[in-house]
Amino acid sequence: MQKIFRYRNLIATTMLILAFILNFPQPPARAVMITTADVIHQDPERLSDRARVKAFLGRADVVAQMQAYGISHEEAQARVDRLTDSEIASITDRMDRLPAGAYALDGGILAILGMALYAIVAAILIYFSVTDKQEEKK
Asked: What is the pTM of this model?
């Protein structure tokens, strides 16, 4: 048992370093097609932003969630109509920055798995080093 305590600082330091390295969030990759309208005409994009927000609010899962919060679909559409262009642009900018399906395996889960794997390997190595030394004594 004393042999294991000799390695505890090494194991703890290594696991701490692994936790910090593996826990850095990796940004999702973004690949978006750039249309000619995006490059040439910047003003039509403002008009389509309001349509994008309305289309998002028209999705069945969003409508169900809004109804769970007590907001009717018509009331939400009316609120979107009353928003200014800058507010709509802010909303669509946030919608564009949201990752779609990302972070299914984020850094926290990978850090825990990495530490568990490291602990198992370290325990096996310590076990075999202790048993090898005991066999040498016999």
From this structure: 0.42
